[in-house]
Amino acid sequence: MDQPNQPRRFLVLEDEPMISMLLEDYISDMGHEMAWQAETVRDALLLIEKHPNIDGAILDMNIRGELSDPVATVLKARRIPFCFMTGYGAGAATAYRDALVIGKPFDIVTVQQAVNTLLASVDD
Amino acid sequence: MKPEPERLWPLSVFKRLRGLGAEFGLGVALAAGATGLRWGLGQIAPGVLPFAVYFPAAAVASLFGGWRAGAVVGVLGAFAGGMLFSPGPSLPSWPDTAMMVNLILFGVAMAVVIGGAAYQRTLAARLAGTNRSLADRDDYYNVLFDGMSEGFALCEATFDDSGSLRDYYILEINPALQSILGVGPEVVGAKFSATPGDNRRWLKMCDQVLKTGRPASFEAHNPQTNLWHEIHITRVSATRMTQFFFDITARKRAELRQVELFGEMNHRVRNNLTMVASLLNLQARDVEAEVRDQLLKAAARMQSIAEVHAALYRGSSHESVELGPYLTDLCASLSKALLLDRRISINVRSESVSVTVDMAIPLGMAVTEIVTNAIKYAYPSPEGGDIWVATACRENRLSVTIADTGVGFERAVGRSDGLGMRLVRSFARQLNGELVIRSDQGTTIEITVPLPADTGASVSAG
Questions:
Q1: Interchain pair A17, B422: CB under 8 A
Q2: pTM of this prediction exceeds 0.80
Q3: What class does CATH assign to A9-123?
Q4: Which residue of A49, B189, B383, B404 is surrounded by the most CB atoms within 10 Å?
Q5: What CATH number is given for B252-459 in this structure?
Q6: Do domains B151-247 and B252-459 have the same CATH topology?
Q7: Cβ–Cβ of B423/A39 closer than 8 Å?
Q8: Who contacts B294 (Cβ-Cβ below 8 Å, separation ≥6)?
Q9: ipTM score of the complex?
């Protein structure tokens, strides 16, 4: 388990600004930081390319009609832990069926549990 | 029904045999008739050529019975002529040279007669077949023309001296189109100009089709019958065109119903959101000032989304929102909820501009936040003042300005870093817009967003 005091930096891929604001608040309440925010799959891929120091990522499954799977593929290759968010229920279509999924609407407890699970998976 | 092959093939063989028998019989009968005729002629006038009568008989046999019947006449004629009517040694004794030559000439001439007549017969049969299939086709097209539910007319154009379409005659009009137009078959041959009403637009369209060859199609409503039609005009030749009328009333009604339902849905969404806002307003009555402010703000945010749906069902289009009336309604509901005294008034001035729902919601939310902040911070003194909301369009960019003449942005503690301004920044970014805050005399906040020309946003002068 990581030391609770060590702040981690997260990437959030979400096209609805109010939801990313909420995630930003929840993440910063845990002592971490939403350091990068992308609203399109393309932007997310560029940010991952530019910043090798991403500690974790939260991806909306459907970004303006586009699946965020390509982002997940790159994250997996770089061994950056990630989870999905979806408003369509846990059975939503994705190539990463075993990935962690946060259903929308979410509450602070769900998000914080997911973030802790992500961070723990790196230390395994 | 299932055919029965084991009973069918003997039937076809029987028919074939019967056919051959009839041909043979016809040949024999004609040969016998010709022989009888020759015998009679011989009685009246001795010296008539022995074989001559068999040629017309063979021709008749070939014409009506085919080459086999003709051949039967030829063979029987050769024997009968040779045996009964020849002047020389008669058959069956071996013929002399003259008889031989006679028989060979007879055979050759007979072959030519039979071949020619049989060929004539084939031609006649083929012609009859063609006529029959033409008649069948005619019937088929007549049934199609009369029976189809689509209206059809064929028209012949007449032009004036300058070469543009002046009028046209109706050459053909099917029963479906007669009933669509409420006319009888007497309009065939009538001029189009006999139709009552102003037909200049219609003629112009027909003219275009005849000139360019590009078919025209459009939808039209008939107020008399309350039916909708899709009409296709197609050029057939330089002076002829066809008009097709398809009944699309069912589709049109479904579309109208869909629009109705969409309006109904927006109405309900709006009412539900308003109800939630009212609940929050109610809840705000019994709590301390700090919490009441928060609840009233939450209710105002809710209401600003509700107003978008109101604008959607009130507007002529169900996909875009007329920004002026939307912002006016939004500010009216904000003053009702937040301005309990008349210290502050909100003035909206908007150009005529339509935006998509996707743009209207963030814009409305941003305006709500900025106006709410201005109400809260700009005029702390009891005299109050004005808040202005204005929209303007320049070069495909839309700017929304919210201005007050109050104490200024920096001097209002908490105005710049609350949730309100955070939301405003976030909405501006969502719209790829710029946010400019000026604080000279009071506060002016301007949001400028690009108007995508292809996503339904449209600007008209106003």
A1: no
A2: no
A3: alpha beta
A4: B404
A5: 3.30.565.10
A6: no
A7: no
A8: none
A9: 0.71
